[in-house]
Give the backbone structure.
Amino acid sequence: MTEFMDLITLTKKLLSFNNINPPGNEEGIARYVASLLTGNGFNVRLPEFEKGRLHLIAEKGISEGKAPIVLSGHFDTVPLGNNKWSHDPFAGEVSEGKIWGRGSSDMKGGVAAMILSAIDAFKHNVPEGGVRLIFTAAEEMGCIGIQQLMRTIDNPGKASAVIVGEPTGNIPATGHKGAIYLSVVTSGKTAHSSMPHLGDNAVYKAASAILKAKDFRFETEYDPLLGYPTINVGKMNGGLNINSVPDHAEFTIDIRSTAKTDHNKTLKRITEELGKDARPEVLVEMTPVFTSEDDPFVQVVYEICGIKKGSEGFPRSLPYLTDGSVLQKVYGGVPTIILGPGEPEMAHKTDEFCYVSKLEESYRIYKEIILKRI
């Protein structure tokens, strides 16, 4: 069987696992990939996220002289949505030059290409420093899987660079915004709605705080790659019924930060501005990913991808979060690039697909990066 057919076969196999999060159920796919990699000489660990959910860390060729390259991906996918699919989301049907299925772009296609490129790289040569694959559970709801893994793992090792295989259409991106997710609670005193003066309305307090969040201004200079930080209130609920004064309300705040944003200062300021009646709790805090276009590793990747420095549209950043935020921080700020075969516009959509040609191209790109990296 050719390398190309192997790649399609593996992608179809990965798509056959239902890893919709929640609940994720990543144990089955993790054990399958572990068996494949173990059979090809990789040392594999399967740390537990929670019952029925496993991460995978696989290493080969690790040496003392040089840190390995890290290839990062995730196993879980988002739900199918309410619209009917015209292709079986778990069959990996190939037609019209596309492979269809939930996770084909985000990001089982990228995971398959990373697996086979890592295996096959060692057939050509022994990559200096070796390779570490890190595939996580529980990425789709705020990258909580990689955060838990890096908090609990005995030794994450060292890294010389990180490639995150999220969907970019094989166009390398050298950064994305960070995030601060907040849950904000307000409390009051219940009473009958016909006598509101006897109560203390928590919804009014939440509404006041939400308007303060809307008008929040960041004390942050412009980031040439990531622009300005943003803030959004995405969810709000409170009260029990129409004829009671509500004694509880809550809402969420989603802040997207840049490399110029001081997270601690921002958290302190927004807590103060929301007021004493609002109690914010940090749900997720992830720093931005940023790598200079002048970094030698970036130049190697650009060359492999056929991109010249100074090309229009580069350096490129992404609007979404990735596990790279945690990994770049854990590995001391090493160059981190987001680069995968999936179509960004297909992520989370009905009838998700990945172009077969992009999948094949990503296999070549990953293998060349492993073998040619600085």
The domain at 3-176+288-372 is CATH 3.40.630.10 (Aminopeptidase). The chain has two domains: 3-176+288-372, 178-286. The longest helix spans residues 104-124.
